[in-house]
Write a structure and sequence with these properties.
The structure holds 2 protein chains of 2 kinds. Chain A contains 15 helices and no strands. By secondary structure, chain A is mostly helical. Chain A has a single domain (60-332), classed as ABC transporter involved in vitamin B12 uptake, BtuC (Orthogonal Bundle), CATH 1.10.3470. The two termini of chain A are 22 Å apart. By secondary structure, chain B is an alpha/beta fold. Chain B has a domain at 89-160. In chain B, helix 3 packs parallel to helix 5 (145-158), helix 4 crosses helix 5 (145-158) and helix 6 (175-191) runs parallel beside helix 7 (205-211). Chain B is globular and about 55 Å long. The N and C termini of chain B lie far apart (39 Å). Classes of the chains: A mainly alpha, B alpha/beta. The interface between A and B is medium-sized, with 31 and 38 residues.
Chain lengths: 335, 266
């Protein structure tokens, strides 16, 4: 019952924020003109171009990216039995970034559709490389804190490699890479949006097929195996899926921090449960709402430099949640 | 005695072939019986239980439960033969008792784990049998250690397997909960009408012996288990094998271990 109410409220909130993102922005556009633009009435005006070609893709991207990262974080937290796991903190986003950096900096001439495919593919390979390191260590070290440290250190190593690539790259490609690295939901064109939507929604929908083994994994490896879960195989699939979700978002939006780590905790607190059949939809909606909120906060303080980097906003939401969870870990009883 | 429910043949267990912990075990456990494993730390209690549970490959030999060879069974089919109870830490504080017990039905349900009305009835019966039914809607995180362990035992009951393996099922419980849990194991085994047996390891020898039919003690000197009925084992002095040379005697009147010094002063 509580879950149903929370899901309905989250869906309403997501819709409201989606609309809010279309009406609010760094340029003031009267509400009437926004509605006209959306109804296709004034397709020549500047406000129509801003709404349809800038705001709509950015708002949709923020919702999709928020959802995908939050789901990736949830899958990682259960797969690694670690409440502090997440795509950015454990270096998965850095791995994806290294993949993207290789394409952007080493082969800046790859453009167009093939450039997209190359960026996503290399982001995926980079994410999986880090994921493999973590998976290998997770079977060696039992402590969740140690695993976290390994993830953070792997992140430093990939950052070092990226720094090196930057050092040898031309200044134009460095500029574009640095902008990408700040994180932004605004860099997806209207033409790319269907691709991002299809990838995020199809990968996100796959998560629900893992609800049953994920619940068993909450009891730990031995109990999960005793409930019929092929633990090694399921864990590998979970890591591939969360790596793919992270890679898709990172390829288009840059490495986005904290959403993947914090949102699953917000969702758990809201529905008061850990059962994945309920937690997966709650996390997806909560992630979309959080992405939208970050997008609105990054565009509203209009200034000469345009939109703020998303990564300047996400820690403001993520860090308090993580501190709260750490402090109340025993009492919350969800971890 | 019933036909053996668990049977091993020349079973050798351990992590390395050149360092087996136990060799050539020919074990038998009849239906409706409780056997207690007694041995010091590092003797191989957990290793044996892991091997029997299929999470560790035997170095040699074979295991069968109710006539089914465990080798080559899929994880899902294995889960229909045996259920485990451990004291592993979990992240399941946010699952309700009912949801946790329902995980015991996973080997029988489809990809989304949807429960049939029969599954629901079995979950309910398991919670009633273990005395945790009134907490069905409580999250595990709000239960006492003893209640949580009852929920984990109910999960194993709901799995409806011929064999239950329990690795130190009472180790974090207070004295009342320990005795309570052991009595629960006895009731469950008796209620099964000989179709279910329990093998458990315990440092908590007194309460375990109260309910046990059989005792399996480790003899570290010759890498084997000495097995027998409780009375045989106590009568033959085999109870002292695991701790030979460590100044420990088995006190027959108390039904528990005590120090050699105490015995002398009496």
């Amino acid at each position: 019952m509580r879950t149903r109410i929370v899901l309905i409220l989250l869906a309403v909130l997501t819709i409201v924020l989606f609309a809010g993102g279309l009406f609010l922005g760094s340029v003031d556009i009267p509400a009437g003109e926004v509605i006209d633009a959306l109804r296709g009435k004034s397709d020549e005006s500047i406000s129509s171009i801003i709404v349809l070609e800038t705001r709509l893709p950015a708002v949709a991207t923020s919702a999709l990216a928020g959802m995908a990262l939050a789901l990736a974080g949830l899958l990682m937290q259960t797969a690694f039995s670690n409440p502090l796991a997440g795509p950015s903190i454990m270096g998965i986003s850095s791995g994806a970034s290294l993949g993207v950096a290789l394409v952007l900096l080493a082969f800046p001439s790859v453009l167009g559709a093939w450039g997209r495919v190359a960026t996503i593919g290399s982001a995926f390979l980079g994410a999986m490389a880090v994921m493999l390191v973590l998976a290998a260590f997770s079977s060696l070290v039992r402590s969740s804190t140690l695993l976290l440290i390994v993830g953070i250190l792997t992140g430093y190593l990939t950052s070092a490699a990226i720094t090196l690539l930057n050092f040898f790259a031309s200044s134009e490609s460095v500029h574009s890479y640095v902008l990408w690295g700040l994180g932004s939901f605004s860099s997806v064109s209207l033409g790319d949006l269907p691709w991002l939507t299809a990838l995020c929604l199809s990968l996100g929908a796959m998560a629900i097929f893992f609800a049953k083994p994920l619940d068993a994994l909450l009891l730990g490896e031995r109990y999960a195996a005793n409930s019929g879960v092929e633990v090694g195989r399921i864990r590998t699939l979970l890591l591939v899926l969360s790596g793919a979700l992270t890679a898709v978002v990172t390829a288009w939006c840059g490495p986005i921090g904290f959403i993947g780590l914090a949102v699953p905790h917000i969702a758990r607190l809201l529905i008061g449960s850990n059962a994945h059949r309920r937690l997966i939809p709650a996390t997806a909606l909560c992630g979309a709402a959080t992405g939208l909120l970050c997008q609105i906060l990054s565009t509203v303080p209009a200034n000469a430099y345009g939109v703020l980097p998303v990564n300047a906003i996400t820690p403001l939401i993520g860090v308090p949640v993580i501190v709260y969870v750490l402090l109340r870990r025993k009492k919350l009883s969800f971890t | 005695m019933n036909a053996p429910l668990l049977r091993t043949s020349r079973l050798t267990v351990g992590y390395r072939a050149d360092k087996p912990l136990l060799e050539d075990l020919d074990l038998e456990l009849g239906g409706g019986r409780i056997a207690v494993l007694i041995g010091g730390n590092g003797a191989g209690k957990s290793t044996l239980l892991r091997t029997l549970a299929g999470s560790l490959r035997p170095l040699a030999g074979s295991i069968s439960i109710a006539g089914t060879e465990l080798r080559d069974l899929s994880k899902a089919d294995l889960a229909k033969q045996l259920a485990i109870v451990t004291t592993d830490r979990t992240m399941a504080g946010g699952l309700t008792v009912e949801e946790t017990v329902a995980i015991g039905r996973h080997p029988y349900t489809g990809i989304f784990g949807r429960l049939s009305s029969r599954d629901r009835a079995i979950v309910r019966e398991a919670m009633e049998a273990t005395g945790i039914a009134e907490k069905a809607k409580e999250p595990l995180g709000r239960l006492s250690d003893g209640e949580r362990q009852k929920a984990m035992i109910a999960r194993a009951v709901a799995q409806q397997t011929p064999l239950m393996l329990m690795d130190e099922p009472t180790s974090f419980l207070d004295v009342a909960a320990r005795i309570d849990t052991m009595a629960l194991l006895r009731r469950l085994t008796d209620a099964s009408g000989g179709r279910m047996s329990i093998l458990l390891s315990s440092h908590d020898v007194g309460p375990a012996l109260e309910v046990a039919d059989e005792v399996w003690v480790f003899d570290p000197a010759i890498h084997t288990l000495v097995c027998g009925s409780k009375d045989e084992m106590i009568g033959s002095g085999a109870m002292e094998l695991p701790f030979a040379g460590r100044g420990i005697v088995f006190d027959i009147r108390r039904g528990d271990y005590s120090s050699y010094m105490n015995k002398q002063s009496e």
